[in-house]
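Please produce the structure of this protein holding magnesium ion.
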Amino acid sequence: MADLVVSNVAKSYPTRDEPLVVLRDISVELSIGENVAILGPSGSGKSTLLHIIGTLDTPTSGEVTLRDQDPFQLNEPQLAKFRNENIGFIFQDHHLLPQLSVLENVLIPTIASGASSDATARAKDLIDRVGLSPRMDHRPAELSGGERQRVAVARALVQNPMALLADEPSGSLDRTHANAIARLLLDLQQQEKTLLIVVTHNIDLANLMSRRLELDDGRLSEAT
Ligand code: ADP
Ligand code: MG
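Below is the modeled complex.
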């Protein structure tokens, strides 16, 4: 069985009139080692789908299985632990904590399990691999947009997640830096042997990935 199985997932939001149907019927199987782009216009439900895959949001119907486990059967603390150990998120805006240093930000996901010396060594190694060793003690405000996104990439990987989920990771960067982040994500996906899913409306970025899926009218298909 694939590491991530999405079966007939639908998602709608209640409104005053008819429910707003965002995802109609999504089925896809993805495995560790794959790198995939999800394309689609603004409002097509890309973030909604990524949040459901990452267990941040629940489907209205259908199933998600991650490594043979249905995460939505877990209770809230179990789900938080599961998510923390299996999923690394990168958002359009870095979501770093301004009062913490680069190293402290990268260590955040390890706090729940008691930040160990192993975790610190892992964090330092990742910071080195995203090219920010000299900036280890700096705060986010002292970094450029591209550098902050690099920190977010290191933080997303610190727990050795099975899946790295990036939602418009270069959306707030210029073209050169957008490309650099995409290449960094791909390099690390291959070194770390994770599943990488990148949501983007940037076709150049999508073309770097080995598989492209397109979200249209609530359905997902292989992009041409
Ligand atoms: P994308 O990421 O492709 O731009 P989204 O997944 O963010 O699309 O949103 C898809 C649609 O769902 C949009 O019409 C948006 O307004 C709507 N939507 C997203 N989240 C909610 C919510 N919590 N409540 C109601 N509608 C929502
Ligand atoms: Mg979005």
